[in-house]
Amino acid sequence: MARAQLKAVDLGHSQRRSPGVIGVVGSGTMGAGIAQLACRAGARTLLYDPVADALARGAQRVREGLGKEAAKGKLTTEQHQQASDLLEPVESLEALAPCELVIEAAPERLDVKHELFRRLSEIVSEECVIASNTSSLPITAVAAGATHPERVVGMHFFNPPPLMRLLEVIAGVRSCERALAVADAAGKAMGKDVISAADGPGFLVNRCNRPFGLEALRLLAEGVADIPAIDRIVRLGGGFKMGPFELSDLVGIDTGFDVSKSFYELSFGEPRWRPSPIQARQVAAGLHGRKTGRGYYDYSGERPHRPADPEPPAGGSDAIVSGEGPLADALRARCSGSEGPKIEVDGLGGLIEGEPFYALVPLSLVEVTGEAGTKAFAGLGLHTERVRPAPGGVLGRIVCQLVNEAAFALGEGVGSADDIDTGMVLGLNHPRGPITWGRELGFEHVLATLDELWSVYREERYRPAPTLRRLAHDESA
After folding, report:
1. Which domains does the chain have, with CATH numbers?
2. Which residue, 89, 113, 287, 354, has most beta carbons within 10 Å?
3. With the CA atoms of 444, 456, 245 and 297 taken in that order, what torsion angle do they form, in degrees rounded to the nearest 10?
């Protein structure tokens, strides 16, 4: 259910208020973080874990987390004490009977969640909402284990829950309006920016982010650029904090590969989500990223895995720019246009002395294919990176695929445009949301890039979303 639909329902005061008693099942990193948020929101918080030692560690983690917040001035001494007093570790599921909302953070196994939801259905009241923090299993499938699946929703917190501002509330096929409203109210009481998503692979945020890593792997497989170059282009040209290969090493290449296979299976073979053989080889070799000391980069030594990014060149040269659109305007702003090499802009790239180049706005890096581009764009104070000629270059191809995936999600009713952008910025630290990026680049330029990719590869992974075509048409009308 999209947020716009949820807002349109008149739910009444009792359904809008945040639950006063919240249960959390599972006391690991996610469970303890969620319990910390519940305590901080003023709810009596019952924390359960079937393993006694894990429960003790989880409760201690909650108290330490609240203490850190107090030390940073986020909680007063009185608030810290009140929040700490609201935490109640319990030794049985039956102790969760008073809960108005139970959030499970159990292992990502459907059989485990089915058994848990079956037992909870026998314990809690008929008014209690049961939520899953799953990031990979369909909410509709999880809800099948409950006696009343209409009371089951998804509450996908991002790691670590106390620090990340975003919460996805996911509607399963049978989730009722009231259950969604309770989850929404609880999230807001915890201080979260809540977005709404319909059930499906990856929900809204993780689904829309699929091209970030998968298209980078495709670019690497084609030899358009190597790993350090792709990551530098994404960081310096796109404003991302990490490139796709650095991020994969941080998350774990094996974990990312499992997620890729899950997406592909749940979608019955959607070509846009096909896993990469490069991932499979890395996993087979035991090169899983930071946790194994080596992945796409080497972390075994004392030196950083990559050099620090350089400052932009000083500039001081000029050029003559022709063409229309955001990129042409951004380049012209750096030139007097009276002398120098001729730059012909066409969409998200163009030619300089016959050599292709690629760049996006806001302009900070240009992907060049020869010496003429390297010299000219460095003279304009811009970073440059050498790549092989390919439709869209590196950054343009990744971003256009992000915009396209967002357009598919929007058209399929998985979430609203605002929620897509909010989710990508707050949940994944993207510099801007894909819908905003599409507007800035021009949806017609995004569509033209995808059409060019389609004409070259004839692969379904590059088919433009019908919604993207509509947005491009509306923009040019």
Report:
1. 3-199 (3.40.50.720), 207-292 (1.10.1040.50), 320-386 (no CATH)
2. 113
3. -150
